[in-house]
């Protein structure tokens, strides 16, 4: 009985790991939707899930001059009322985009999951919030599209 339980647990863990492994967005130049590559229209494809792993890999953000500060945020847009952000951490390369990490922007509902049929926009850039004017400005350094199968 313990062997069957152990086998079931191992199978479940491997299935979850495999699902998560398929839902990785590796930031690269080929999927960039701005600048010279905007005409390529390559998008990522993932399975429905509660999480996407965003992997910055070794991507060099070159859209703006070197004098421009490095990106500090990720913006995830699913719909008008489903817009979220995540702060980047210096030196960190992989980020979970999920309920526990995505903060809803003003007017957005809490994040639940990435559902079949959605097209998601993931942007990496610099977020500036003017608390006096109550405005947000986001300067995009990289933009990719993700289709949820």
Task: Give the gist of this structure.
It is built from 1 helix and 9 strands, in the order H-E-E-E-E-E-E-E-E-E. It is mainly β and 149 residues long. The protein has a single domain (2-148), classed as Sandwich (Immunoglobulin-like).
- Structural category is mainly beta
| Number of discrete domains | 1
Which stretches are low in confidence, meaning pLDDT under 50 for 5 or more residues running? 4-15, 17-21
Strand content: 35-45%
Number of strands: 9
Percent range for helical residues?
A: 10-25%
Signal peptide: 1-20
Keywords: Signal
Molecular structure report:
The chain is globular, with a radius of gyration of 17 Å. The protein has one helix and nine strands. The protein has a six-stranded mixed sheet with strand order 2-9-8-4-5-7, with no helix packed on it. It has a single domain (2-148), classed as Sandwich (Immunoglobulin-like), CATH 2.60.40. The model is unreliable at 4-15 and 17-21 (pLDDT under 50). With 149 residues, the protein is mostly beta strands. The chain has one helix spanning 2-22, and strands at residues 24-26, 44-46, 51-55, 73-79, 82-87, 94-98, 103-104, 119-130, 135-148. A hairpin with a 4-residue loop joins β8 (119-130) and β9. Keywords: Signal. Residues 1-20 form the signal peptide.
Features:
mainly beta; signal; 149 residues; 38% strand; 6-stranded mixed β-sheet; Immunoglobulin-like; globular; 3-stranded mixed β-sheet; 1 helix
């Amino acid at each position: 009985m313990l062997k069957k339980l152990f086998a079931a647990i191992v199978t479940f863990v491997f299935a979850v790991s495999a699902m998560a492994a398929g839902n990785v967005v590796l930031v690269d130049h080929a999927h960039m939707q701005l600048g010279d590559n905007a005409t390529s229209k390559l998008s990522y494809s993932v399975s429905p899930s509660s999480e996407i792993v965003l992997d910055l890999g070794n991507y060099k953000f070159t859209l703006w001059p070197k004098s421009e500060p490095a990106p500090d945020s990720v913006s995830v847009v699913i719909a008008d009322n489903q817009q979220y952000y995540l702060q980047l951490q210096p030196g960190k390369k992989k980020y979970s985009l999920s309920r526990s990490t995505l903060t809803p922007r003003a007017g957005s509902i809490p994040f639940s999951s990435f559902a079949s049929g959605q097209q998601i926009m993931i942007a990496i850039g610099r977020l500036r919030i003017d608390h006096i004017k109550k405005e947000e400005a986001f300067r995009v350094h990289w933009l990719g599209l993700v289709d949820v199968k």
